[in-house]
Every structure is written in structure tokens, then in C-alpha cells.
Design goal:
The chain has about 160 residues and is an alpha/beta fold. It has a single domain, classed as 3-Layer(aba) Sandwich (Rossmann fold). Helix content is about 25%, strand content about 30%. It is built from 5 helices and 7 strands. A 7-stranded mixed beta sheet has the order 1-7-6-2-5-4-3, with helices on both faces. It starts with 13 loop residues before the first strand and ends with a helix. Bound molecules: adenosine-5'-triphosphate and magnesium ion. The site of magnesium ion has 5 residues, from helix 2.
């Protein structure tokens, strides 16, 4: 039962924004705007099909945080760590995760404790995925992409501050 006396239906409040990403520059630009909001403990969950632009957006976030080196896809390493000016970043790609438990061996909890976390293929974690998160859902749109941003938990209010 909820505080209103009505049965709880288990739906988490969320805020949403849409953002057209017609080219790579727009994708990196959105990453840069997300970077301005990013702080320790933040989780950005990047959803979308193979090759839709999850790593590209992650690269934009890292560039926005001041990282100037390469940002390889973590497809085979499963996680890449970055030390940026403002925040430590762990960039995960869970496509090849053997089991949900393996994420803890890879250090998700520690990474969230020490800095910010970006996750490609977050749906693989199911309900193990922390609830407080910014979700970016990417989809093809002509030659470019469309991003739907969903803020859950404290990201409900913070999404409003994100200029997209
Ligand atoms: N907004 C965009 N507009 C046009 N092309 C884009 C856009 N974003 C990414 N791309 C291109 O799409 C291709 C795949 O991008 P990327 O590697 O970022 O996808 P991904 O979702 O991380 O793939 P994977 O599922 O393999 O991890 C790249 O060639 C990239 O340049
Ligand atoms: Mg990728």
C-alpha cells in the first residue's frame, strides 16, 4: 500500500526529454552537455541497438570532462577507466558479460563510489541496475539518431537543468 492508501503499482517517477542527433557533432555535443552535470556517484545508462551510437555519446561525455586521449569501445575489456579533471569515470560495455554477478567482479559498486559510471547494454543487468540513473535511449533516425533521455530518482529534477 502507498501513503495514499491506494495499492502501489511499483512505477518509479521519471522525467523525459527528446534530442535529435543528426550527426556525430550533435552526439558529441549532447555528451558535452551531460558532462557539465556529471558528478561522483552518477550512473548514465546507454540503451540502444548495435552500432546506434552508445560509445560515441560516451566519447562526447569524456571529451566534455576534458579527456583528450582515445575512447575505445570497451566491448572486449568490458570496462575502461578514465581520470578526468573533474571526476573519475568507468565506462562499461556489458554486451559480453558472462553473468550478472560478473559486474560486481568488474567493480561496478566501487566505480559508483569513486566516480561516475557509463554503461552500454545496461538492460543486461535487469533489476540489478541501480535505480538512480540518467537513461539515454538511442534509436536510428534517417542518417542520424534520436535520443530519449529519462531521469530517474534524483535525475528527475536534474534532467530539467540539462540543456538539450
Ligand atoms: N548521431 C549520429 N549520427 C550519425 N552517425 C552516428 C551517430 N552516432 C554514432 N554514429 C556512428 O555510428 C557508428 C557506431 O557508433 P558507436 O560505436 O558509438 O555505436 P555503439 O552503440 O557503441 O555500438 P555497439 O553496440 O557495437 O557498442 C559509428 O560509425 C559512429 O560514427
Ligand atoms: Mg559501443
Amino acid at each position: 500500500m502507498s501513503a495514499t492508501g491506494l495499492p502501489s503499482i511499483g512505477v518509479t517517477a521519471c522525467a523525459e526529454k527528446l534530442c535529435a542527433l543528426p550527426d556525430l557533432g550533435a552526439a558529441e555535443g549532447l555528451g558535452g552537455r551531460i558532462a557539465t552535470q556529471l558528478r561522483d556517484g552518477d550512473l548514465v545508462a546507454l540503451f540502444g541497438d548495435l552500432g546506434v551510437g552508445k560509445t560515441t555519446l560516451s566519447r562526447g561525455i569524456l571529451r566534455g570532462l576534458g579527456h583528450e586521449g582515445p575512447v575505445p569501445s570497451p566491448t572486449f575489456t568490458l570496462v575502461q577507466h578514465y581520470v578526468t579533471d573533474g571526476v573519475l569515470v568507468a565506462h562499461f560495455d556489458l554486451y559480453r558479460l558472462a553473468s550478472r554477478e560478473e559486474i560486481f567482479e568488474l567493480g561496478l559498486d566501487e566505480a559508483l563510489h569513486e566516480g561516475a559510471v557509463l554503461i552500454e547494454w545496461p538492460e543486461i543487468l535487469g533489476n540489478t541496475l541501480p535505480n538512480e540513473r540518467l537513461e539515454v535511449h538511442l534509436a536510428d533516425a534517417g542518417d542520424g539518431r534520436m535520443a530519449r533521455l529519462v531521469g530517474r530518482g534524483h535525475w528527475f529534477d536534474r534532467l530539467g537543468a540539462l540543456a538539450v
